[in-house]
Amino acid sequence: MDLIDRYLAAVRRQLPEGTQDDIVQELRDSLRSEAEELEVQAGRPLDAGGQAALLKKRGHPWLVAARYLSQQYLIGPSLYPYYRKALGMVVFWVVLPIILIGGAVTTISSEASIATWISRIIRAAWNGAIYSVGIVTIVFAILEHEQVRLSVLDKWNPERLPDADAVREVPRSESVFGLVFSLTFLIWWTGIVRAPNLVFFGSEPARIVPGPMWAPLYWPILLSLLASTAIHLVDMIRPWRTTALSLVDIGVNLFNIGIIVFMLRANNYVQVLAPADYVDRAARAEYSINNTIMVSFAGIGLILAWDVFVQIRRLVKARPARAHAL
Predict the structure, then answer these.
(1) Long-range contacts of 91-97 (CB under 8 A, 24+ apart)
(2) Cβ(216)–Cβ(233) under 8 Å?
(3) 243 φψ region: left (φ > 0), alpha (ψ -120 to 50), beta (else)
(4) What's the pLDDT at 320?
(5) Best exposed site among 83, 138, 158, 301 by fewest CB in 10 Å?
(6) How many other C-beta atoms can be found within 10 angstroms of the C-beta atom of residue 23?
(7) Distance linking the first and last C-alpha atoms of the chain
(8) 207 versus 315: which is more confidently predicted?
(9) Digit-coded pLDDT (tens) for 128-157
(10) How far apart are CA 37 and CA 58, in angstroms?
């Protein structure tokens, strides 16, 4: 048996019953015809090397057989837009918030080491992503195999398109990250979960207590966190920024900058209470922690100021476009 016959046999094994004879005969005629043309050009019969080159040009038997199958895609073009959106909803709306919020709560409430916290969060994120993507893919592969047609997008309403004054589209990954951060900080700020003591002197843990400067900031920070949470929720439900929502976000950021300015004027964010034998070490730890907090808040303030600048710039640049559209 020459290489062409072996090739056709390999293709035949990949074809469904009932279509094998016709498809193989069609391929045989095509290959024999092309082989004869090559033999005429060369002036001699094709050897094994010539047949191998011809068959390699045609492609692997699996790929050739796949062209004759009724289903060419695991998830075809008609279902792919739904599949892509479903993955986004599962990963960013369900899996990621649960993983991050659960990981943050575990991190805050657990006494395990930082390496253990990171390992748990990474493991949960990996498992959640694998399971969610796998389940969604299997469901859509079954829908593709059964030739199910979804008609959700056929019922779209032009009246629900974004307003002409929409400033920008907000990626849902950005909304989820902001929402998780706001909720995590809100859980800690309201005292639902307390952070463990992380400073140790010998075998005795030190207590880290907030300084007196936090008392007048409780309600302003709580109000800011609630407003930020609401903005991120709106961004998730309607992922485009209108002028009104951008102005609200700018106002919240300016309010937060005011809080940070007030905080930077203070220098006693936390106090480290330790046994009497470790007073000096506790003082050094307190100094280091307070400086770290101050630098962190300064960095957050700069980020907020930059975000305000960017949003105002977008609003200003969008005005001529809206005027031109009108």
Answers:
(1) 91/129, 91/132, 91/133, 92/172, 92/173, 92/176, 93/172, 93/176, 93/236, 94/132, 95/128, 95/129, 95/132, 96/125, 96/128, 96/176, 96/180, 97/176, 97/179, 97/180
(2) no
(3) alpha
(4) 59
(5) 158
(6) 18
(7) 75
(8) 315
(9) 777 778 888 888 888 777 766 666 556 656
(10) 15
pLDDT of residue 325: 47
The three-state secondary structure class of 161 is coil
H/E element holding 168?
Answer: strand 168-169
Token pair listed for 277: 């034998």
| Number of Cβ atoms within 10 Å of the Cβ of 125 | 15
Res 107 pLDDT > 60: no
- In this structure, the strands spanning 200-201 and 240-241 are unpaired
DSSP β-ladder status, 270-273 and 200-201? unpaired
Which one, of 149, 2, 131, 11, lies nearest residue 67 by Cα? 11
> CB count, 10 Å around CB of 275?
13
CB neighbours of residue 252 within 10 Å:
20
The structure tokens 């040009």 sit at 57
Indicate the domain borders of the chain: 3-66, 73-158, 162-326
Does residue 171 contact residue 239 with C-beta atoms inside 8 Å? yes
| 215: three-class secondary structure by DSSP | helix
Token pair for 24: 């193989």
Note whether 124 and 103 are within 8 A (CB). Answer: yes
Give buried/exposed letters for 183-218 (b at 16+ CB in 10 A, else e): bbbbbbeeeeeeeeeebebeeeebebeeeeebeebe
3-state SS track over 36-56:
HHHHHHHCCCCCHHHHHHHHH
Q: Are 105 and 187 in contact (CB under 8 A)?
A: yes
Residue predicted with more confidence, 56 or 278: 56
The set of long-range contacts for 136-142, using a CB threshold of 8 Å and a minimum separation of 24, is 136/83, 136/86, 136/87, 136/90, 137/74, 137/75, 137/83, 140/75, 140/79, 140/82, 140/83, 140/86, 141/74, 141/75
